[in-house]
Amino acid sequence: MNLEKWLNRYKTDCAMKYNSDSTKENYTSGVKCFLVKFDKYSEPKEIPTQEIKEYLLTFKTINTRKHNICAIKSFYQLTVGMPNKIDKIPYPKSDKKLPIVLSIDEIQSMFKVCENLKHKVILALLYSCGLRVSELINLKWKHIDRSRMIINILQAKGNKDRQVMLTPELLPLLEKYYFEYKPKEYVLNGQFPEKQLQYSDRSVGEVVKKIAAKSGINKRVYTHLIRHCSFTHMVENGTDINLIQKLAGHSNVKTTNIYLHISHNHISKIQSPLSQIQL
Description:
mainly alpha, 3 strands, 4% strand
């Protein structure tokens, strides 16, 4: 099989079909692995559906398998011209694991031990309005609208724009950080401020882990967990779930409803049938 020919064709089709760079990159990577696996066939249309099924079962996690089904299905639809090639391969049900969020006291302990000004800005921006790490590192000063007290999140997941609140408590911290670090375009500069490069997502992850470890939190703490904590605590404070959906940038409120499930306030107030029993 001419791998380069088919992969180049698919890259072109992806560029025409998808807006998201991450979708194009991930799908192309999945299709490349697929084509390498079945290089013995002269054309993709010759690959038996049964062998595609067996290939997909080699992926141990449900989410990885679903991702590869999507990539292969896209390849056959856009590039091979066989949209029904893998229609009979069912999508596996997704794992429904709830994140173990931090309490407000634990978040407070992270702020308390954070002495580095830039690190505190990172934590504050992530937590104040539930930013994704990609949204944080792409945030520019011109996106922060002090007159309207909002932050404009542009070209976020799915290439969607949205607005989130600019918390008044955040302003003094941002001002202090601005005058000390003097970043120009991006709010967060990378390792060499004079080059005005962006901070990396890996660096943000390391910052969050170090602050959590310093505060003595034993739970697994990662960047996206701070987003979960933000929206869960909003639910517990009585914020309407439809407003949280808009802040989170979710297309469907069903996605946002996860925060109802992990809110300890909602769960702890449920009356157990044991309360009616005399022990």
